[in-house]
Design goal:
The protein is α+β, with helices and mostly antiparallel strands. The chain has 20 helices and 27 strands.
Length: 709
């Protein structure tokens, strides 16, 4: 349904454009847009817009059907979406509120053809309009949408369906009310006056405005001020124009000329353009005062948006609940200038404190486990899904006496954490001084709370899945190792730091009695539940064949044949050592595994890399060679997986050599302490997000007369 731009518009398309334009004007909306569905690409494309230039619609011209935005929500649900103000937009669609930080009321109506959604109509009004649409407005919009749906159906039936344009068509704005500017009148005012069209280009300015901007009138006419005046290039100034354009509400900003003169810019928008008054001001830091003809400052400055988007990025990067809590306490508090933060969830009828910072310890003790039947501001926010703001702590305590445990904080924001229509908790922000919460700041905090809720839901799911993965991993490893006589043993397992990547590393020790054991370490390729399942099967196969009395080379050959039959895609490395302690003899066989390390009684080490066969699971008929060596009293054998030695940019042979040196230099010590030291050193060199796990098995034949465990 993607069409090319044509100079001649098809009658069906022109009629749909006309219906949108007429409905937008009739109901007093200052912006209207028609989206058409592209089923094969699972998105909606804006095809027509009225009220703003086409270039300004591009960021929102394509909407994925699965996206959490109003247009997609209306298309998915088949029902209208009404958002009377920016705060409601922030509560229900926090991502949209961050990307579109303007004070508007928004109405989205799906275009239904025979019960199926073919598109959607979006309309915007200034955010100060009444909170509800009138029956006349809903009737007019509904009638227009029905006619649009009928036109789409008719066009499709004729074989010429209306397709979305590659670039949305911006319909022409109404003609100016006057044929030419009243130049003489504006020259008498004693202040700068200029006019911008909807594209932001200067269409008129008086001589005072040109003088204040320090530019010739001819330079400015037809151009955008922030492109022609160097000290107006800050994106904040263009954002004031965008705020006035999208909200159709007056706004203002202050800019400093290079000579230090501060100029106040007051913007008055309507459907044809924006009138700008420019005048010097001696006190640019004064707060806006409508009574003195100073308009509200432009909302959502780029600096604020940058911080919010930075925080959104930090929340997106947080994988688990611990990382999320760290991001909130280390970054959100600083950016929002909050001195206290508490992240609360509602679980099984009680509050649970996920994390706190800045509040005294008794706050956490009081809140954790508090029944949801209690009367507190946080619980009220969770129950209603409506944020609560208290500029002064005395007002909070008056409404909720149980909130006396909030320490020395003077102002509070209680932000419900709502995701997918469910309120799962509350984020509490505390400030050490009384603080006003303007409408724009409330909307920004509500948007941020929506992002926190989504991040928290994702992190809790991650932690839950990680717990299942860890349980699976631990269930497949031996719960305890046998303690054969005349032999010391220590084993360690370090999981991959990606908690959901279930590793395939394993170890085992098989006690045959009479001080004869089989030591095995293996590593199944990949990190998945399938890899863990194969790991369990390989470990069981090795154990079974060893118990049946098969020689080492037959143990791996038979296990290899089994793995080839079970899995045609996963491979496994494995090393098996048959240790006869009374005879001080070891028979070792390897299937593509990192070479074991033998420490001799004198402390020198040897890397046993003489023979290693093919990985298990590649070819069904493989013969493995035996390596035999002595294990005298005082000797130690180390078996391990590649996660212990493999590092990006480091030769594997050199890394194994370093491990051998480390074991040699460690000297004679308790075997568990040595295993811990080896793992600890490996953890200091591994990437914080390493995707590989580690298995280590140490077997030592004690010196004669020494104590062994």
């Amino acid at each position: 349904m993607r069409g090319d731009e044509n100079s001649a518009v098809a009658p069906e398309t022109a009629e749909v454009d006309r219906l949108l334009d007429r409905a937008t004007r009739t109901v007093g909306a200052h912006f209207g847009a028609l989206y058409l569905k592209v089923p094969e690409r699972k998105l909606m494309m804006m095809t027509t817009a009225t009220g703003v230039p086409s270039r300004l619609t591009r960021p929102w011209s394509r909407v994925a059907l699965a996206a959490p935005v109003p247009v997609a929500e209306a298309a998915r649900s088949g029902a209208p979406v009404w958002l009377p103000n920016r705060q409601e937009l922030a509560r229900r669609f926090p991502r949209t509120a961050l990307a579109f930080p303007y004070s508007v009321a928004m109405y989205v109506v799906p275009v239904l053809v025979d019960g199926a959604c073919w598109g959607a109509v979006l309309m915007l009004w200034p955010g100060n309009r009444p909170q509800e649409l009138t029956p006349a407005e809903t009737s007019e919009i509904g009638r227009a949408v029905e006619l649009i749906a009928r036109g789409l159906r008719t066009a499709a039936a004729r074989g010429s369906p209306v397709r979305p344009r590659i670039t949305p068509l911006a319909l022409d704005p109404p003609s100016p009310r006057y044929g030419h500017p009243a130049s003489d009148l504006t020259e008498r005012l004693g202040e700068g006056v200029c006019a911008l069209d909807l594209h932001g280009r200067v269409t008129f300015l008086n001589s005072t405005a040109a003088g204040l901007l320090e530019r010739d009138r001819a330079e400015l006419l037809g151009n955008r001020p922030w492109q022609m005046v160097p000290w107006l290039t800050d994106p904040a100034y263009e954002n004031a124009y965008l705020a006035a354009l999208f909200s159709r509400l007056p706004t203002s900003f202050t800019a400093d000329r290079p000579d230090g003169t501060s100029l106040a810019f007051l913007l008055y928008p309507d459907t044809t353009g924006i009138t700008v008054r420019i005048r010097p001001t001696d006190r640019p830091e004064d707060p806006p005062d409508p009574a003195t003809d100073t308009l509200p400052a432009a909302p959502a400055r780029p600096g604020t948006l940058f911080h919010l988007l930075h925080l959104a990025s930090a929340l997106t990067r947080a994988v688990d609940v611990e990382e999320l809590t760290f991001s909130l306490t280390e970054q959100v508090m600083q950016v929002l200038d909050a001195q206290g933060l508490a992240l609360l969830t509602a679980d099984e009828g009680r509050l649970q404190v996920v994390g706190t910072a800045g509040f005294p310890p008794e706050v956490q003790r009081y809140l954790n486990g508090l029944p949801l039947s209690s009367q507190t501001a946080g619980i009220r926010a969770i129950e209603t899904g409506v944020p609560l703001f208290y500029s002064d702590a005395s007002d909070l305590i008056r409404d909720f006496p149980n909130n006396r445990h909030c320490g020395d904080m003077a102002a509070f924001a209680f932000l419900p954490l709502t995701v997918s229509g469910r309120t799962i908790g509350c984020c509490v922000l505390g400030y050490d001084r009384p603080r006003l919460f303007p409408t724009d700041q409330r909307a920004e905090l509500t948007s941020l709370a929506g992002m926190i809720a989504q991040a928290l839901e994702r992190a809790r799911l991650y932690d839950s899945n990680a717990q299942v993965a860890r349980g699976l991993q631990e269930g497949l490893l031996p719960h305890r190792l046998p303690r054969p006589g005349q032999l010391d043993v220590a084993a360690r397992y370090r999981p991959a730091t990606h908690a959901l990547e279930v590793g395939g590393d394993f170890y085992d020790l098989i006690d045959f009695g009479e001080s004869v054991v089989g030591a095995v370490v293996g590593d199944v390729q990949g990190h998945s539940v399938q890899a863990a399942a194969i790991m369990g099967q390989v470990r069981t196969a090795v154990h079974t064949h060893a118990r049946a009395g098969s020689p080492p080379e037959e143990i791996l050959s038979r296990t290899n044949r089994l793995l080839t039959e079970l899995s045609g895609s996963l491979f496994c490395s494995c090393v098996y050592a048959h240790i006869d302690v009374p005879r001080h003899r070891v028979r070792l066989v390897s299937a593509g595994h990192p070479p074991p390390i033998l420490r001799h009684p004198d402390g020198t080490t040897e890397v046993l890399d003489k023979a290693s066969g093919l990985l298990l699971g590649i070819e069904p008929d493989v013969r493995y060679e035996i390596t035999e060596f002595d294990l005298p009293p005082g000797a130690l054998l180390a078996l391990y997986t590649d996660g212990l030695v493999e590092r990006p940019g480091i030769d594997l042979g050199q890394a194994i050599g370093r491990l051998a040196e480390e074991i040699s230099e460690a000297g004679r010590q308790e075997l568990g302490a040595l295993a811990d030291a080896v793992i600890e050193r490996a953890e200091t060199t591994v990437s914080p997000r390493s995707g590989d796990d580690i298995a280590l098995l140490l077997v030592e034949c004690p010196m004669a007369g020494s104590d062994h465990r």
